[in-house]
Amino acid sequence: MPSMTAKKKCCKDKPRCKKCPVVLMRLSKAGCAKRIDKVHYKVDKKVPKKVFKAARAR
Q1: What is the pLDDT of residues 32-48, one digit of tens each?
Q2: CA 7, CA 23: separation in Å to the nearest integer?
Q3: Largest Cα–Cα distance of the chain, in whole Å?
């Protein structure tokens, strides 16, 4: 599991970037990432494309 560090502030672009804290929070709710602390996440290597796309698009 690679670890990712979220950005400090969400830019609210469409689609959201991969390091956006909102995207990482949505991935953790979907079960594809685990939150270590406030800004660090462990993300699964194989996140399904549909899940990742949905997390970035909303």
Answers
A1: 999 999 999 999 999 99
A2: 11
A3: 27
